[in-house]
Amino acid sequence: MELTSQLANQSFPTLPTYDFAASLEQTEAQSAVRQTVGNPFLDNPRMTCRDVAVFYGEKQAIRHINIDVGCNEVLAMIGPSGCGKSTLLRCLNRMNDTVPGCRVEGEIRLDGENIYDPSVDVVPLRARVGMVFQKPNPFPKSIFDNVAYGPKIHGFTTDKAELADIVETSLIKAGLWEEVKDRLQEPGTGLSGGQQQRLCIARAIAVSPEVILMDEPCSALDPIATAKIEELIAELREQFSIVIVTHAMQQASRVSQRTAYFHLGDLIEVGPTERIFTNPRHRLTEDYITGRFG
Amino acid sequence: MIYSYLPFIILLLGACAYFIGSAKAVAVSGGSGGIRSLHSLPSHYGALTALCCVLPALMVYALWQIAEPMVLTSMIKKGLPAAMLQLSANEFSLVLNDIRNAVAGNSLSGSGDTVILAAAQRYMALQATAGKIASAVILVMMIAAVLIMYSRIHIHLRARNIVEGLIRISIILCSAVAIFTTIGIVLSVLFEAIRFFKIIPLQDFLLGLDWSPQTAIRTDQVGSSGAFGAVPIFVGTILIALIAMVVAIPIGLLSAIYLSEYAHPRFREIAKPLLEILAGIPTVVYGFFAALTVAPFIRDIGTSLHLEVSSESALAAGLVMGVMIIPFVSSLSEDVLHAVPQSLRDGSLALGATQYETVKNVVVPAALPGIVGGILLAVSRAIGETMIVVMAAGLSANLTFNPLKTVTTVTVQIVTLLVGDQEFDSPKTLAAFALGLILFFFTLCLNIIAIRVVQKYREQYE
User: Fold this and answer.
1) Are A260 and A267 in contact (CB under 8 A)?
2) Contact by Cβ (8 Å): B412, B275
3) Rounded to an integer, what distance in angstroms lies between the CA atom of residue B49 and that of residue B217?
4) For testing the chain B interface, which of A94, A115, A139, A197 should be mutated: the one with the most B CBs within 10 Å?
């Protein structure tokens, strides 16, 4: 009894007097759709999202989002868990199609073509927009077959030497060639976690996509493997557009050119990474990147 | 009287002992700081008291149940007339049987012999006295046990450890029963088979091409030479199992793939149990179906195509057996397919693979060891299956791979060899044990391989 009353009377100077729930109600009351701070549009975009809303059954996961993905840039999507950043990412190559009850509204264009148009086939779309997942997921096949999988199913080549060439180039680009060139026939699942993730990146590169989506690609890796992947992302930017979802704000600031901050299904703020991290304009962005919540 | 209710009385006293023990434990703990000062819970003390009281009593009771007839019979023998004691062993056992029958109240085999009736009355009197003595001994033992335990219970008695130990021992005994029964079955088959192989050499049995197990009972009988070459039987078994596999593997595997990869989850929840119901249909029902529907159907089709089809064909039996094992293949395969991580499917789909390419190139190869394990289990089930083949496949041991002919299987032959009046030391009946041994060995190997394969698969994802 005494102890609890002491606790109740004690003030905690280290905690901010910020009432998160109240601010949320207030902003939601102001408008159903929050205005994005910063300019989400680009002059020469690779992909464009216009008024994109995603529903899982009755529940709305993201609301009316506009954002562009530029050529040869790394766009980082950050935000607290459940903010809809992974949902948006999975819309970009229609991986959400496999989720029962998922419905996408609005328009997502890749090189001007609406990827949700009924006439669009997801198979070539996913070859153009590759994806790397949170947990490394090499197939239980040899290292060679893991990388050769995409080119084979898309019929890029029937020539063995040419296929070997594609595999080698992809592994070199993924920075894995030197480590595995003598054991290409060993199972991909036998590699270390970081190597497995680079194998998955090589697998995605092998089908020569235009955009690579990365869903928290380093969250299952140790710092050294993470550093290698980040280095790799910087190199890959020269050839591909990359969209990366990450929980590590340090990582976002290291690898990306632009950063988008999501909050409860809304795109709150988007802008050049440096500006977002040094001078955020929206209070929610500031609270998140300074570590007050999330 | 009390003797016939003794088991109930023992259990009742045991229950009392439980309450006495736990009450005493609570009582001794009262003086020294409550139940917490006890080494174990009061229920442990109660259980210990009850066990100490009941277990020895039950043991004595069981021993007496076994020993009573022997002891009483030997006592009765002394009172019988000298003339009877000089009878031969066989005749004397008949006399004892008469006495026992008289005791049980059945009519006597001969005329009411006064000597036997007198002996039976003496037997009953002895039995009553012995029952009273045994009851008294057991009850005294139990009460003594409760009293001893009652005086022994104090706060430092490690009742919990003792009770846990006793429970452990009883559990080990129960599992030992299962293991020793299995060993007993194997050994009984093995010894009979060895007797068979003393008459018919092993190589003749395993490599002989002719099977006609009718042996002559009388020496002047004709046409019953007895040939024990098991190859036609093994070939028949393998032929039927192969046909069953040809039916079950594609249908079972593809329905598993449909349920796991394509079907709506709600459909899967309904369809999978329905498919498993197929496994619950008694095989004798499948047998009817094979013999009365499928076999005539195949014969009719065959005759319309001018093929020679016997009315009992390997094809009919194999087809129906295949239907029977579909649920094994599909249910086990569906489980392993479902266990393939979703991340692998996502990885493949994200590379632009179609659903079928994903299933063919990623999901099925990842699940393959488990699928193979499931199929091997189904095969061993098919080989050991009896009823369908008895009813639909026929009895004549033809050495043929033609599925339209009559063939026979190991299990069918075992049944036919042992049905009817048989001498149990002729090669004909002993051959059944030899066949059984080979069959057991074969399915055992298949099961071991299947379990190994499934285990290896499990290690991959856990």
Assistant:
1) yes
2) no
3) 63
4) A139
Beta strands in chain A (DSSP E): 45-56, 59-70, 74-78, 102-110, 113-114, 129-132, 211-215, 241-245, 258-263, 266-272
Average pLDDT of the residues in B32-59 = 86
Residue ranges covered by each domain of chain A: 36-289
Q: Which residues, other chains included, contact B181 with Cβ-Cβ below 8 Å and sequence gap of 6+?
A: none
Query: Domains of chain B by range and CATH?
Result: 2-157 (no CATH), 211-215+225-461 (1.10.3720.10)
**pLDDT reported for residue A18:** 47
The answer to whether the CB atoms of A98 and B346 lie below 8 A apart is: yes
Fold designation for A36-289? Rossmann fold (3.40.50)
Average pLDDT for chain B: 84
For the entire predicted model, the pTM comes to 0.71
Name the least confident of B219-223, B316-320, B431-435: B219-223
Using beta carbons and an 8 Å cutoff, which residues of A are at the interface with B?
93, 95, 98, 100, 122-127, 130-131, 133, 135, 137-141, 149-150, 153-154, 189, 200, 203-204, 207
Chain segment A160-183, per-residue pLDDT in tens: 999 999 999 999 988 899 999 999
Helix/strand/coil for A49 = strand
Chain B partners within 8 Å of A154 (Cβ): 352
Please report which residue ranges of B153-214 form alpha helices under DSSP H.
159-199, 202-207
Question: What digits encode the pLDDT tens for the residues A211-252?
Answer: 999 999 988 888 888 998 999 999 899 999 999 999 888 899
Instruction: Provide the pLDDT confidence category of residue B275 given band limits of 50, 70 and 90.
Output: confident
Query: Parallel, antiparallel, or unpaired for β A211-215 and A241-245?
Result: parallel
